[in-house]
Amino acid sequence: MSNIPTAYQGELMLAGWNETHTGGAKVTFWLPDSQALEPFRHMTVKKGNTAGQRFMAVLVLLDEQDRPVSASGEQPKAEGGPLAKSAALVCNSRDFQDFVAHRTGVDLGDDLQRRERAAQFLRGFCEIDSRAELDSSAHAAELFRRLMAMYREWMADRQPVTA
Questions:
Q1: 3-state secondary structure at position 17
Q2: Both 89 and 141 in a single domain?
């Protein structure tokens, strides 16, 4: 029995979509980092180096505060700390850690050091002592949104251009 995962669960960012009469409808997403590709890497090999596996997906649109947006546009009641949770997730992302290393010009060290130094950078940028403050300070939340916009722009600049 194979140890290769057959499911992906995680945050995605819409990169684009298109529809053609020959290629059909296509949606492209950015993953948080290259490690998130692991569940997919083996799949084309199994099918003779072609794509075509079928998946079931549930996608939830997030607002600027990383809260789910309902179909009616109303915000469900947050159950504590969505920005802090997002900040923790992003600090664990290898790509965000690379972004921090790029911004600071500092080698972040091993995996544990990389996560902590990414968190330190985020706290410093957002002028907070704890990521939990992101949910209680409008100023810190705005700085976090700016940082995430800078990160998304940096990620977009790293993506290869496809036709």
A1: strand
A2: yes
> Hey, what are 91's tokens?
């600090």
Which whole number is the average pLDDT over 58-84? 67
Q: Give tens-digit pLDDT for 44-64.
A: 655 566 667 777 777 778 776
For 41-82, give the DSSP string: HTHHHHTTS------------B-TTS-BPPTTSPPPPP-S-H
Considering the domain architecture, whether residues 49 and 94 belong to the same structural domain is answered as no
Query: Do 33 and 87 belong together in one domain?
Result: no
Residue 123 lies in a domain: yes
Q: Where are the beta strands (DSSP E) in the chain?
A: 13-20, 24-30
pTM given for the model: 0.50
- Residue 103 is assigned to a structural domain of this protein: yes
Q: Which residues form the domain of 110?
A: 82-158
Q: Is residue 105 domain-shared with residue 140, that is, in the same domain?
A: yes
Average pLDDT over residues 17-41: 81
Question: What Cα–Cα distance (Å) separates residue 58 from each residue in 1, 4, 9, 50, 118?
Answer: 27, 21, 10, 24, 30
